[in-house]
Specification:
The structure is a single chain. With about 325 residues, the chain is α+β, with helices and mostly antiparallel strands. Helix 2 packs parallel to helix 3 and helix 4 packs across helix 5. The longest helix has 19 residues.
C-alpha cells in the first residue's frame, strides 16, 4: 500500500473501513444507511461511548490501542446488561496528527478486536478536525426479550459482587505518566489495562441469568455503585478491605504509608471496566461456579440494605469520599 500523509473521507472509508464492514448489513459502506434485520424473540440493545484525546487517552497513545479501547469500553456496557454484541457504528474525528499510518493503525486495532469479539462494522462517518482527535462508537447487541439487566433492580438482602480487580485503570494512567515506583513488568501490565481493558463479555450470560442490577465500572467503583443504588432506591454497603486488587496494584498499595487514602484512589479512579452487580445470596455458589468456568475472578464486596446511597467501611470505620469517581462534563 503506498504511503499517503493525509487521506480524504471516501479514501479512508473504502481503503480502511469497508473491509471491516458486515458483508450483508453494512452494504459495503457504499450507502447512507445500514439495514439490520430483526431477530425473533430478542431485544436490540444499543450503547454509545466517545473518547477524546487528552481526556480518555493520551496524545502519545498508539491509535491501534485507542481503537481497541473505544470498542472495549462499549463492549463493557453491553456485558453489564447481559447482552451479546454483533455490530457497531463508528465516527472518527481525525486531528492533524492522524496521517495515513495512524489511520491504518486505528483500523488495524478495530480489525484485531472484531476478530476477538465477533462484531462487524455497520457504518458511520469520518471527518477532519482542527482540535484533538476523538472517536465515537455506537455498539449494538441482542438479548432475549425482557432480559436486559438494568441499574434499578437491586433489592435489600442482595449481595454485591465485582468481577476482576479494581484500580488497575487509574494506576495504568499513573504509570504511563511516569508516576509509579514499580518494576517495569508491573507498570507494563497496568499500562496495558488502561489502554486496552478486558470487557467481561464472557460473563454476560450469568449476569442476565442471576443479576438483579448491574453496571460496568468506568467512572470508579464507588461512583458507579452509587448510580446503581440511586436507581434502585436502596443502600449499597461496601467493605473496602474486600475490594480485589491485582498483583501489581497490591504491590503499589503495600508501598503506601496511608492505606485508607491509597484505597480511596483505587476505588474512585475509574477506567476498570469490570462489572459490579447485585444478586440474591442463594445464587452466590452458582455465580462462583460460572466465574470459575471462565477463569474469572469474582469477589463479594458488600450487601444491599434498606435506605439510600452508598456506604463504605474500612477497618471497622465508615469512610466518606470527597469524590466517588470521574465526572463527565
Amino acid at each position: 500500500m503506498p504511503a499517503v500523509d493525509v487521506a480524504g473521507e471516501f479514501e479512508t472509508i473504502q481503503r480502511l473501513f469497508a473491509p471491516l464492514a458486515h458483508p450483508d448489513w453494512g452494504r459495503g459502506l457504499a450507502d447512507d444507511v445500514a439495514v439490520v434485520p430483526s431477530r425473533t424473540g430478542h431485544d436490540l440493545v444499543l450503547t454509545k461511548d466517545a473518547i477524546v484525546e487528552g481526556v480518555h487517552f493520551l496524545p502519545t497513545d498508539p491509535l491501534d490501542t485507542v481503537a481497541r479501547k473505544l470498542m472495549r469500553v462499549n463492549l463493557s456496557d453491553l456485558a453489564s446488561k447481559g447482552a451479546d454484541p454483533f455490530g457497531y457504528l463508528l465516527a472518527c474525528h481525525w486531528s492533524s496528527r492522524c496521517g495515513w499510518p495512524e489511520r491504518m493503525a486505528f483500523a488495524d486495532g478495530l480489525r484485531a478486536d472484531q476478530s476477538v469479539f465477533g462484531v462487524s462494522l455497520l457504518g458511520g462517518d469520518t471527518v477532519n478536525t482542527p482540535g484533538p482527535a476523538s472517536f465515537s462508537m455506537t455498539l449494538l447487541g441482542w438479548i432475549p426479550t425482557g432480559r436486559t439487566v438494568g441499574r434499578a433492580g437491586a433489592r435489600p438482602g442482595d449481595l454485591v459482587f465485582v468481577t476482576g480487580s479494581i484500580g488497575d485503570g487509574w494506576l495504568g494512567l499513573e504509570g504511563l505518566q511516569g508516576r509509579l515506583s514499580l518494576d517495569a513488568g508491573q507498570v507494563g501490565a497496568l499500562s496495558a489495562h488502561y489502554r486496552t481493558p478486558t470487557p467481561r463479555i464472557d460473563f454476560a450470560l450469568p449476569i442476565r441469568g442471576m443479576a438483579t442490577a448491574a453496571i460496568d465500572v468506568s467512572d470508579g467503583l464507588i461512583a458507579d455503585l452509587e448510580h446503581l443504588a440511586l436507581a434502585s432506591g436502596v443502600r449499597v454497603e461496601i467493605d473496602l478491605e474486600t475490594v480485589p486488587l491485582s498483583a501489581a496494584a497490591q504491590a503499589w498499595f503495600d508501598g503506601q504509608a496511608d492505606e485508607r487514602a491509597a484505597l480511596e484512589k483505587l476505588v474512585t479512579g475509574g477506567d476498570d471496566y469490570e462489572i459490579a452487580f447485585t444478586a440474591p445470596a442463594r445464587d452466590e455458589a452458582r455465580l462462583r461456579r460460572e466465574a470459575a468456568l471462565r477463569h474469572l475472578r469474582l469477589t463479594r464486596i458488600g450487601r444491599v440494605t434498606t435506605g439510600q446511597g452508598i456506604a463504605a467501611g474500612f477497618g471497622g470505620r465508615p469512610v466518606t469520599f470527597v469524590r466517588g469517581g470521574f465526572r463527565h462534563g
